[in-house]
Amino acid sequence: MAPVSDRTSPSYTNAPQYHLVQKGDTLYSIAWRYGVDYKELSARNGISKGYIIYPGQKIYLNTSNPKVTTKSPGVKKPSQATSRTTVAKTPMPTSAKPPVAQATYNHFTWQWPARGRIIRNYSPKSGLNKGIDIEGRLGEPVLSAAPGTVVYSGDGLRGYGKLLIIKHNDTFLSAYAHNHKLLVKEGESVKGNQKIAEIGSSGTDTTKLHFEIRREGKPVDPLQYLPKR
């Protein structure tokens, strides 16, 4: 089994050769864990557009290598009912109050995922913080920063606690970590500013929201996209 990484993990050059799929993994969560673009990961491993993966499957991580053309030996595909899929969309009617501020980018609107002050900034050089930490109280709402589809909902990535990942388009994903409660499931469509979770301290010793934006698999400073307060 490949070692589990968190947001303080070393650069991709120190990553293992492959990740062995575990129950609860999605292609998106694996790509997030190792800091690669999910589209490149799917192409590298010959995974079709549905992005369905199976426990026991080897996901090769070096996207510069030739495409995998053979299936991992010994992997028995489960029935469709138990397959992990991230493409179904179910409209969610519930939404939070209108945001305080908005910023438009790439045909959708970025909005603040929580109303607290920033207690830790993006730190790309040190690698210690690939997003921002927003102060909050237990149970306060976590809001989707833009419309999209939930592609991961769970606690399988060490260092993130209860985590949501939302796909906004083929370029951008966002993540919401350390939640107390997750209110949406994988495959559900969400609106911008919809309540998707409650702030908590899962996976950390501080009550806060850790928020990240990834552009083509790479972390970017959320403050470059969120509206000024």
TrEMBL record:
SMART domains: LysM
PROSITE patterns linked: LYSM
Positions with biased composition (Polar residues): 79-88
InterPro entries, sorted: Cell_wall_metabolism_enzyme (IPR050570), Dup_hybrid_motif (IPR011055), LysM (IPR018392), LysM_dom_sf (IPR036779), M23ase_b-sheet_dom (IPR016047)
UniProt-annotated stretches for the region Disordered: 65-98
Family: Belongs to the E.coli NlpD/Haemophilus LppB family.
Tree of life domain: Bacteria
Residue ranges of domain LysM in the record: 17-61
Protein name: Peptidoglycan DD-metalloendopeptidase family protein
Organism: Simiduia curdlanivorans
